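During the first year of the project, the team set up a workflow for recording each protein of interest as an amino acid sequence followed immediately by a discrete structure-token representation. This format lets reviewers and collaborators read both layers of information side by side without switching files. As required by the reporting guidelines, we include two representative entries from the current panel. The first entry is reproduced here exactly as it appears in our internal archive.
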Amino acid sequence: MDAFFVLFSGYLVFFMQCGFCMLCAGSVRGKNAKNVILKNLLDTCFGALGWYVMGYGLAFGETANEFLGESSFALRDVPHRVYSNWMFQYAFAATATTIVSGAVAERTKFEAYLVYAFFLTSWVYPVVAHWIWAHTGWLTAFKVFSADLFNGTGVIDFAGCGVVHMVGGLSGLAGAWMVGPRLGRFDADGKPREIPGHSASLALLGVFILWFGWYGFNPGSALAIVGASDVAALCAVNTTLAASAGSISALLLSMIISYYVSGNIVWDVIGAGNGALAGLVSITASCSVVQPWAALIIGFIGGFVYVASSNFVLHVLKVDDPLDAIAVHAFCGMWGLVAAGSFADDALLRSSYPALLDDSNQPVSRNYGWVMGGDGKLLVSAVTGIVAILGWVLFHMVPFFAGLKLVGLLRVLPEQEHEGLDISHHGGSAYPKEMVRSGSWGSAHGGEAYIK
């Protein structure tokens, strides 16, 4: 039953690739739909190779090393009973990889996607996964003896705010910064121009698929159902509440901003969808250790974090991110770790993490969130984890993308970008012009303009 639960949860997480695919396709222009869809597919494929050859071994291979694993490469000597965990963890690694594709969409060479997908899943991501999720990692909260835990607490990241979302979002930030903005994204004065995606329907379909897949992401991280059904059920409830609260808060804030700027209230469907994703990311670290009322607060604040960080990335950093992947995943991932260090409940921590013992094998209480009456040590550990992940990812991914740029493998030619990558790279548009011209929408609005 446990193996089936883990495998099925892994299948749900893998199905999130479909959600990312639809979200990316809807959020880019029609002339680049084929390109971003194929990139999502090949991210998944090359990510599987990287995870098989090196990634799983570095993350979960047997070792006494707190920094990385030292065995199980290419599944060597891995017993078949562990294969369910390999599959589940691969789906997580693939998720981190796919986050990057949205941030650098519409102007990046295909070769860059293939190389970074392998590099991320074979080296950058698995080392962070080892730190926090392996029993020997230096930031893990899964050790039994309190003396072995960093700061006496470890980092509470139950399903991957830091491991998955910060790694993917920060890698996207490095890639989007190095590849530069899309043509026409900023005017001569450096002010951003809107470049809307071609299908809100596809984008919101992607959001709902991702939300559905998150029920494998968070509850599945219990890694068992027999004896752990209460933990999985709590994760499912908290996931639902946080997503709902994040969507509502992001929608409300975007309405307030639009009214302040233009005098008109705009019900922003894309912003509401991204708000739901922001809530989902925000609860990922703490889904098993917070009460439902806290999940509502975490998700609600997550919507504000998304809107604020989206504007910060665009207007202050001048980084062009077509999907707001950096805001949703990197910044809300940071907030999620802080939230876990703040709202973690004493009883829930004891039910979802191993009991702690001292050197005399006597039970020791776990440190819990400062909001719940704790001493703040768990928050200090969370901030330490944020700094460590930020440094590790940017230290590797900025030079990595800079190297691709130096050798001419990062950005497509301006004329190819203007024409659209579907035509220049994939043999034609995802929406053949004959179909658009013959349809009612094309007749009324002009098929040629719609394609571009």
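The second entry, processed by the same pipeline in the following quarter, appears below.
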Amino acid sequence: MEKYIIVILALSFACLSLDAFEPSPLQDFCVADSTTSARVNGHACKNPSSVGANDFSFSGLHMPGNTSNPNGSKVTPVTVSQLPGLNTLGISMVRIDYLPWGINPPHTHPRATEILTVIEGSLQGDVFVFPVGLVHFQRNVGTVNAVAIAALSSQNPGVITIANAVFGSKPDFSGDVLAKAFQVDKSVVDQLQTIF
């Protein structure tokens, strides 16, 4: 009996420690002050007396993005850069517009998990979840434009587009290394490096 009580107590403490994983903010809000270069796990806080309602709102997600580019997609972010009131809250979102067969190319978010929901049109699924750091993409598989909204678990999730990171890096990766890594002729790598 005593063993079972110890096991139950241990499990209870483990569950309590899971609840304590994400600490609560130390203040009600910390609107980002874009006029200072000081950074402490986010942006420095504006003086509360200069905070206004406009620090907590953004207008632009209702507008279709310009998809006239080689990918046929446009990401409209709402991060702390666009909405200062998100600072320290650990959330952000994006709108993604896609032409028919347009793609949001393979990329990763180094600081956020993402959940994406299709609002209009057809992607390869209706709702997706991408754990932090996982390489992912989306493609419109329909014959009409598509729109998705995604929520991210960081006010500054970051984005690393794989093709840009590999073929457009500065300094360049050696063409021989990339040709061997991707098992293609070096001329293919040379061509890709001129594009990115």
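For the second entry, the following points were noted during internal review. Residues 4-21 have pLDDT under 50 and may be disordered. Residues 138 and 175 are 28 Å apart (CA to CA). Both points are flagged for discussion at the upcoming steering committee meeting.
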